[in-house]
Structure to design on (734 residues):
């Protein structure tokens, strides 16, 4: 069902697919009533949500600061209006103001159409938090769409993409459904590639007991972004680390964050902690994945059901630290093409990676140009929160959602001669930008940051 | 009417205002900060947090950074409002002689009263103009119009009337209110003495102004005006201290690894990289 009363919607999971991820879909006629029941439960828990519902003054500042609204010009894609889709219900049923004054303050009765609106617009939001960053109060619409998506999930409405990823996570521990033999094969192939291309011997240890470091790669790096994983392998070999990749959690991402922060997200966290204990490791290092790094860094402490005994850092933190200590010999001339950096939203607004990414990129490239705005002011690629839908209607929408990004990249001029590099160190950004740089004809190749590090390492 | 607005309603207003605010704050406190959703780049110390929240709350830092027009209107409005509220308290409390109390300036009580009058007049007009500008934005600017609900406009109009009536008392002499009358009235109210026959309540403009203020205070806790407190509650969720775990990998000695030539094919002097 790509459209509902003129609204675009991602293809949704079938009832059977929902049952696979432990949700019994609610029949349509019961949905409004159930939605209210779930909303009432969840609103009493999350203050971030209550504040978003109760303290917006509708100043309008978020409008021109949201890439989704800039790309689509659909009023419901203005962050405060997107939140209003749920706020109107919240007001009507849970505030005195809404009960007394109704329509005057924008309160509205719930019905099936409202729920369908949620599904359309909460899955056009990239949860990039730029609205939280610019809001005078710091109201985080991401918290609203998180909870909106959670309610939809409990009602049995989840995009096919997200639901199938949730099922794969539970089955094999990664998003792409890659089993252990496939992982080992791919890594062996990568070793050969590294030997051919860089003349270096790199081994990717899988499930090696008594390792010091457990590296969590994004599963997309096995298939779509091989140079990121190869770069990480080269880095760990270069520094002589005793490291391993756990076959049970070959996934830096955690789609649970994006549609089910209860069962799905928690399940992946437990897998990770089990693997860390079984392998006897001392530290966990995270691969390039934006939402996944946020889920790991900021959510594991509050989701874990036991003490977390292992410090968790990002591979960029470690590389930048070594660069500052002058421990790595890097040749920026190995990356001589003009480069610009797309700041993944979760890195810069939720995980504080701004400076470390720049420490690295300045050391491994010759011609680095900042885009504007950048850092915590950066705009999302338009794929944030995995709205990477492939059906024709949603794909058209993705082109619109990435138009602000395209404008930014064009302004840097890196793609003018068709040989630019757009460094986007996040798997979702990469998956969004691979096709989008073609759609917008930007003349750049999309790469990760560790890719560039791997290339720049001087071995002798 | 005088009995209702001047004698009975004020006690009801104060009660509802206080209880209402406690109800709203309790409602917010009941829900918890579940996950850490602070915005990065992180703030390192509580001092930095205080500066950030303070500059957002009192200088409207984000509006200044991202929409200077909105900043001008909103800041002017709130700044004038703050001064007017302060002026009401200090001016009526000290009969306009507050500036004479500042030691070392040599301001006479008469001059102080004139200054007080002048400041009140200026801020009253500024507030009215700023409110008009904010209303203009809501009806004329597309991006603000698209997010505006009827109640948002009604609030602005309500405030314009409230401020307008106040300005009439200030600008037109026949309707002027003496500081002393107000002070005596408030003191009497606070001491639970009868006030119905006081001279102040014979001023029709005063009664209207006073009634509008009381309605505003009663509705305040249940309305968007609670953003006064919401501001701090929300900021405290997204602007808090966060400390990164220290980088540094266990049992890694890069110098030794490079000396051993790890990664280089054995006995082979291959150039690293391409």
């Amino acid at each position: 069902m790509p459209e509902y009363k003129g609204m675009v919607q991602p293809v949704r999971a079938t009832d059977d697919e929902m049952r696979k991820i432990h949700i019994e879909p609610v029949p349509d006629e019961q949905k409004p009533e159930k939605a209210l029941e779930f909303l009432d439960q969840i609103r009493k828990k999350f203050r971030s949500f209550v504040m978003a519902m109760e303290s917006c003054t509708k100043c309008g500042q978020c409008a021109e600061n949201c890439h989704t609204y800039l790309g689509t010009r659909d009023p419901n894609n203005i962050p405060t209006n997107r939140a209003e889709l749920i706020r109107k219900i919240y007001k009507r049923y849970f505030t005195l103001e809404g009960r007394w004054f109704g329509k005057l303050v924008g309160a509205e009765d719930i019905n099936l159409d409202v729920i369908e609106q949620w599904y359309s617009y909460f899955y056009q939001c990239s949860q990039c938090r730029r609205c939280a960053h610019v809001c005078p109060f710091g109201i985080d619409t991401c918290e609203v769409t998180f909870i909106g998506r959670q309610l939809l999930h409990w009602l049995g409405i989840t995009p096919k993409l997200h639901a199938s990823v949730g099922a794969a996570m539970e089955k094999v521990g990664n998003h792409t459904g890659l089993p252990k033999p496939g992982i080992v094969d791919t890594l062996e192939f990568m070793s050969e590639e590294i030997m051919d291309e860089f003349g270096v011997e790199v081994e990717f240890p899988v499930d090696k007991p008594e390792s010091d470091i457990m590296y969590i790669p994004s599963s997309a790096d096995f298939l779509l972004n091989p140079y990121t994983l190869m770069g990480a392998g080269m880095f760990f070999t270069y520094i002589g680390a005793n490291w391993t990749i756990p076959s049970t959690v070959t996934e830096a991402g955690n789609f649970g964050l994006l549609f089910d922060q209860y069962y799905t997200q928690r399940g992946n966290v437990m897998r990770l902690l089990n693997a860390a204990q079984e392998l006897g490791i001392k530290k966990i290092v995270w691969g390039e994945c934006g939402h996944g790094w946020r889920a790991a860094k900021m959510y594991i402490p509050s989701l874990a059901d036991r003490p977390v005994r292992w410090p968790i850092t990002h591979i960029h933190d470690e590389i930048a630290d070594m660069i500052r200590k002058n421990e790595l010999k890097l040749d920026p001339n190995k990356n001589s093409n003009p480069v610009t950096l797309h700041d993944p939203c979760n890195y810069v607004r939720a995980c504080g990676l701004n400076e470390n990414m720049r420490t690295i990129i300045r050391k491994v490239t010759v011609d680095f140009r900042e885009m504007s705005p950048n850092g915590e002011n950066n705009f999302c690629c338009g794929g944030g929160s995995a709205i990477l839908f492939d059906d024709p209607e949603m794909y058209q929408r993705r082109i619109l959602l990435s138009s602000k990004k395209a404008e930014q990249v064009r302004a840097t001029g890196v793609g003018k001669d068709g040989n630019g590099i757009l460094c986007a160190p996040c798997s979702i950004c990469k998956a969004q930008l691979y096709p989008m740089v073609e759609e917008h004809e930007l003349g750049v190749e999309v790469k990760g940051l560790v890719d560039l590090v791997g290339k720049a390492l001087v071995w002798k | 009417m005088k009995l209702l607005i001047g004698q009975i309603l004020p006690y009801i207003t104060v009660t509802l205002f206080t209880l209402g605010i406690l109800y709203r704050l309790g409602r917010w406190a009941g829900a918890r900060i579940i996950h850490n959703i602070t915005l990065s780049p992180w703030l390192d110390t509580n001092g930095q947090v205080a500066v950030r929240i303070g500059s957002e709350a009192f200088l409207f830092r984000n509006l200044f950074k991202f929409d200077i027009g909105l900043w001008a209107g909103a800041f002017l409005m709130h700044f004038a409002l703050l001064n007017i509220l302060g002026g009401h308290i200090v001016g009526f409390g000290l009969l306009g002689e507050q500036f004479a109390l500042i030691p070392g300036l040599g301001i006479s009580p008469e001059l102080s009263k004139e200054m007080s009058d002048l400041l009140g007049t200026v801020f009253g007009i500024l507030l009215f103009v700023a409110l008009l500008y904010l209303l203009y934005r809501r009806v004329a600017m597309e991006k603000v119009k698209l997010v505006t609900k009827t109640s948002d406009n009604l609030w602005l109009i309500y405030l314009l009337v409230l401020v307008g009536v106040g300005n009439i008392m200030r600008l037109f002499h026949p309707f002027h209110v003496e500081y002393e009358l107000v002070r005596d009235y408030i003191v009497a109210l606070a001491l639970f003495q009868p006030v119905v026959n006081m001279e102040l309540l014979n001023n029709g403009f005063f009664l209207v102004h006073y009634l509008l203020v009381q309605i505003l205070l009663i509705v305040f806790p249940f309305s968007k005006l609670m953003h006064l407190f919401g501001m701090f509650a929300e900021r405290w969720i997204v602007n808090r201290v966060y400390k990164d775990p220290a980088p540094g990998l266990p049992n890694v000695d890069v110098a030794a690894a490079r000396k051993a030539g790890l990664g280089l094919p054995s006995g082979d002097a291959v150039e690293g990289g391409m």
About this structure: Chain B is about 65% helix and 0% strand.
